Amino acid sequence: SAAVSFLRLLGAPKRGVGNATVAKLVKAADSSASAVARAVCTGEGLDALAKAAMGPKFDAKKQYQELLGLQEQCAVWRAMDACVEAPPGEVAAGSVSALLQAIIDGIDYEGYTKKRSSGKD
Predict the structure, then answer these.
(1) Which of 61, 7, 14, 8 is nearest to 39 (CA)?
(2) How far apart are the first and last CA of the chain?
(3) Which of 3, 40, 110, 118 is deepest in the core (most CB within 10 A)?
(4) Higher pLDDT among residues 82 and 21, named by residue
(5) DSSP per residue over 26-84, as a string?
(6) Per residue in 14-56, pLDDT tens?
């Protein structure tokens, strides 16, 4: 599902939101991965969810700051979501290809795969 894929995105490349934090977020969201994805991507209810998962000083924690960064990235991806057609062989601004490239660049997935292949991760 999209929610499970989103939870994988939280951990790869590593951004300080590990399995334990993800499990706490899902538990705080009544075991709903979709609710976690929605909160992070839209910001709606993120503070309440983070407080329930991480405690009262959640906003000072690195994991929360990483979630905010991902929330900002999601806003960029949403803005690019309008897909338009381009001539064959070209990538239109706002196309699925452009969106995927923005996601890959935004999370530095290429750097992550290089680290993994060199055994540094």
Answers:
(1) 7
(2) 26
(3) 40
(4) 21
(5) HHHTTT-HHHHHHHHHH-TTHHHHHHHHH-TTGGGSHHHHHHHHHHHHHHHHHHT----
(6) 777 778 888 888 888 887 888 888 888 888 888 998 999 989 9
Return the SS3 of 85.
Answer: coil
CA 55 to chain centroid: 21
**Taking residues 94-105, what's their average pLDDT?**
67
Is residue 3 within 8 Å of 34, Cβ to Cβ? yes
3-state DSSP call for residue 98?
Answer: helix
- The single-letter code of the amino acid at 6 is F
Q: Are 106 and 71 within 8 A, CB to CB?
A: no
Question: pLDDT class for 66, splitting at 50, 70, 90?
Answer: confident
- Determine phi and psi for 27, rounding to 5 degrees: -65, -45
